[in-house]
Amino acid sequence: MRTDLDYKTVIFFKKVAKILEPREKMLVSDWADRYRVLTAGESAEPGRWNTARAEYQREIMNAVNDPNLAYLTVKSSSQVGKTEMMLNMIGYYIEYEPSPILVLVPNLDLAQDFSKDRLAPMIASTGVLKDKVKAPRSKDSDNTILHKKFPGGHITITGANSAASLASRPIRVVLMDEIDRYPLSAGSEGSPIKLAEKRTTTFWDKKIIKISTPTVEGISEIEKEYQKGTMEEWNVQCPYCNVWQPYEFKRIHFSDMMMECVHCHEKLGQRDWQEQPHKWIAAHPERTDHRSFHMNELTSPWVQWKKIVNEFKEANEEFKRYGSTEKLKVFINTALGETWEERGEGADEHELIKRREAYEAEIPQGVLLITAGIDTQDDHLEVEVVGWGKGYESWGIRKFCLWQDPALDSTWEELEQYIHSTTFHFQDGGCLNIAAACVDTGGHHTNMVYKFVRDMEKKHRPIYGIKGYANTPGIPLLYKRTKVEIKNRKGQVTDATHIMILGVDAGKEDTVAWLNVKQPGPRYCHFPSDEKAGYDDTYFKGLTSEEKVTKMVKNKLKIQWVKKSGVRNEPLDLRNYAYAAVEMLSPNWDLLEKKIKNGINYMQPSAVKKKKKRGVVSKGVEI
What pLDDT is stored for residue 472 in this prediction? Predict the structure, then answer.
């Protein structure tokens, strides 16, 4: 007969056996399918997690279960579920394989957002996590928004800009999200990526996971990491020829939204391709300690190919119309998950030369305003006169050199006479004068230019001194008006005047983008074919003499305008100064058009008023 003591002993040993019994072997995808629940606030498809919904995620998540693997890299587009995969890995390690975990995002603000908006909802909706991770309490240092303890481990969420957070606690699992957005240095401590990796040195079974959309070729950290690993692409098998192939945007036919087979050239739509067998294919399967994966939006079950194509068309249209590559860059990075090849944004001199045209008169119909830019050289002045119409459509009118010594008063008197008195005619006999001009104060004749600008200021003539402020992103074209001193030959201050500091990079951004506009209309640049106008090959070499490039300067990534070797850039400067003169006037284009139609030569201003623009006091001609 069994006694109560015997019964209790059996129960005791059963409990002990259950505790000592090895846990069921579980992969990250198994854990997610069994326990993860998505809420309406987290996902457009709330309910229990289903890895089969996006099968490409399975191999990526399960890679961390490989004991031979130390590094995992995911180079990815947006909208493929990469953040959800990272959350599943975190949940797995908290519940099934407790470890010290570090989650690193670009900055501390994003760390707060990730913890509150992504991690906390997952913990709250996943039963096996809810009991292990308590809700944050401000008085409980073991459980805050950015640091949470659980049985057997803890998780810290921090920003790559926080050196202090990267200099303590050994970590087994490091998850780095959007590494291409990290600062180059965490304070003065160096690379945040290297600092985070050092935290894992005491663990033989460390896991270093890096996830990001890429940025610029040659600079992208995720691209460099991807190339160190297995370099795996998600491949689909063609049902006609059985050839395995990756999803490639260049093989999409826009007319019917079908992708052509790389081998047999048969075409299938999105659903048909996504219903075929798939697998990851590695370029370097021998790199067993570092698996790296690449995905683009074409693989995603949540994005329609039509939407991807429309995004490309919109970005491409902006490039064709305005010469801007910004939307194309975003598309390449976030839709295709590829790096952007920075080729140097500039204009093609040969294209501009070929499109020179014969004007019907000195100034063609469409011109509503004329300005001039003047560049000061050691032995002469360079001048360009530009006509402007609605939407900043422009017409080169005349480019010439005033071959007189800028050290002489007579040179500036002749310039004043030209700017103030020269009249340009339309075909119907109507005419315009130069409404405003900007003259460069740099070089070896700065004091002479200051004196000239002072005299023009006293005469209320819209000829403004300017000084360029380059290689400083974010500075507007009309940056600030400043007072400068005029000195005599003995170096004594005798007077003062005002000049405008220009953010020349902002002007070049617009000018070069407009040079790339292909069709007449807003922002298009016209040039005359008349040789006497001065628009020869040398002019166009100078106009296209600079390009925007991304480069490393003192260990920092900077975008700069760089002059091509052996080419002078005065024509680009002149066009920039003429553009600045338009901005100083801030004209009413509709009113100008009305006066042109009425045959009024309004360009000798009857009044000058001061107005505030972008926080800068500038002069605007009342026209």
Answer: 66
Higher pLDDT pick, 422 / 612: 422
| C-alpha dihedral, 546 to 551 to 553 to 559, nearest 10° | 60
Beta strands at 232-237 and 278-282: parallel, antiparallel or unpaired: antiparallel
CB 521 within 8 A of CB 529: no
Token pair of 113, please?
């957002």
* CATH numbers and ranges of domains, the chain: 27-216 (3.40.50.300), 349-539+569-608 (3.30.420)
* CA dist., res. 241 & res. 535, Å (int): 58
Residue of 277 and 556 predicted with greater confidence: 277
Specify the pLDDT at position 7.
60
Residues 312, 318: Cα–Cα separation, whole Å? 10
Name the DSSP letter for residue 17. Answer: H
φ, ψ at 117 (rounded to 5°): -95, -25
Pairing of strands 232-237, 244-246: antiparallel
Name the more confident of 431 and 344.
431
Q: How far apart are alpha carbons 414 and 314 in whole angstroms?
A: 49
For the record, the structure tokens of 589 come out as 């284009």
d(CA 527, CA 547): 21
Contacts (Cβ under 8 Å, ≥6 apart) of 413 = none
Rounded to an integer, what distance in angstroms lies between the CA atom of residue 481 and that of residue 612?
A: 11
pLDDT value at 20 more than 80: no
Spatial neighbors of 136 by CB under 8 A, at least 6 apart, are: 143, 144, 145, 148
Please give the sequence-ordered ranges of beta strands (E in DSSP) within 161-288, or none if there are none.
Answer: 173-177, 207-212, 232-237, 244-246, 252-253, 258-260, 267-269, 278-282
Q: Which residues contact 212 (CB under 8 A, 6 or more apart)?
A: 74, 75, 76, 176, 177, 178, 179, 180, 181, 221, 222
- CB-based contacts of 147, cutoff 8 Å, min separation 6: 141, 154, 155, 156, 157
Residue 89 backbone phi and psi in degrees, to 5 = -65, -45
| Residue whose C-alpha is closest to residue 544's, from 506, 570, 519 | 570
d(CA 436, CA 454): 15
Convert the pLDDT of each residue in 26-39 to its tens digit: 999 999 999 999 88
Exposure string of 80-101, with b = 16+ CB inside 10 Å and e = fewer, is bbbebbbbbbbbbbbbbbebbb
In DSSP notation, 110-161 reads HHHHHIIIIIHHHHHH-HHHHTTSPPP-TT-TTB-SSEEEETTEEEEEEETT
